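Query structure, 65 tokens:
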């Protein structure tokens, strides 16, 4: 589920804070023109549309202990 799809769902406090920050950055970047050839107005818009929360797996060195 992308970050945009998570809007309106139950989020942890940390996820809500991160999502609010990303949307805030996207809003500020709308003042600037969309870079030529880009499908999204900014990297923040790309992250909001296609980013996802995940839990990182243990690193291989951590599996040895």
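Result returned for the query:
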């Amino acid at each position: 589920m992308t970050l945009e799809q998570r809007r309106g769902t139950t989020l942890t406090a940390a996820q809500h804070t991160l999502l609010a920050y990303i949307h805030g950055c996207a809003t500020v970047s709308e003042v600037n023109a969309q870079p030529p050839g880009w499908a999204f107005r900014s990297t923040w818009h790309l992250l909001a549309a296609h980013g996802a929360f995940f839990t990182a797996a243990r690193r291989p060195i951590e599996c040895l202990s």
